What we know:
heterodimer, A: alpha/beta, Rossmann fold, six-stranded parallel beta sheet, 8 helices, 8 strands, B: alpha/beta, 6 strands, globular
Amino acid sequence: MIRYECFEWLAPLMTDQLVVTSLSGQRVEWGHLSKREADLNLGSMGNALAVGIGLALALPQRKVFVFESDGSVLLSLFNLPTLANLNPPNMAVFVFDNQAYSGTRISYPSATAGKTDLAAVAKGSGIEHSVTVSALADFKKEATAALHDGGLRFVVCKIEESVGHRNITRSDVDLLETKYRFVRYLERTEGKPIFQGRG
Amino acid sequence: MDENLAQGLVHGLRAAGVDFITYLPETRLSQILPLLQNDSSFQLVPVGSEAEGVSIAAGAALGGKVVASYMEGTGVYVSCYNILTVGVRYGVPMLLLVSYVGSFEDHRNSFLYVQRGIKLIPQLEALDVQYQVIRNGERLEGKVKGAVRMMNALKQPVALLFTEDFTL
């Protein structure tokens, strides 16, 4: 399974769901395929899952999708027990696990290339719906359920390491612009001010 | 910490409009937790690491909450990556409620805490996080309100460091 194919299928199906992405090629690929104001491309490792939790708790009426990588989840494993115990029903986490630190350019293997099973770690942390998929058809089933059903989902997507994102022209939208675009979108669609204080 | 101080701090947070708090219990200010838990003004989120406490609070802030993250001074070290990569770099207003363990006025200071205490302010300054040291309950509500105004004006994390009377 290739991550880009997953995104290519999913991006046109997204409506008002909020999306948080971490770093790596997924930020580039999702940013290329989806130009929505509801996308928060964080651009850092080990933060997307927690930021997604905060959004899901603050906006329980909105569905929050988090796109993570194996390296990013491994950096912040303490997120998993916290996520399990909070159990936000409006949140779906997709971990694109290529079993490597691809950004190193030497494909240095991550722990999931060895003995570590992230879905089992999540399950052991208490996340009931924690599964691994390795075929595009199975990804589509999980993503479809995440779009239409409630309940916390944690889906480890075993993917081939791909470097296609290196051929995608990087966005010139910087992090502050991303933040303001996202927040102004929420202010408009939620009908409430988010940033306090006026000049 | 004296019950009145705990009540004053919780009152100050409520009056300042804080409505979402991540927390990892610690040794100096934990008397505020039962008060927060019994107050429906606050959405409380227990965490396993101050690092995720900061990032969860940041997500909630972007979702419209007025947020705080309560931690021991050591938590600033644990979460400095998150403070920098999400809070500072993204420009997210959040109030860091920090017990200033190992400071001059920490009544329970010892060799266990002092190294963390003396480097805490340099750490915050390196992160460019504005801070204020709070030693007693004098004008506590006003100081908490001022910190919340500051974080909203700056759109950055701002820290309150609690020591002296708060460490009894």
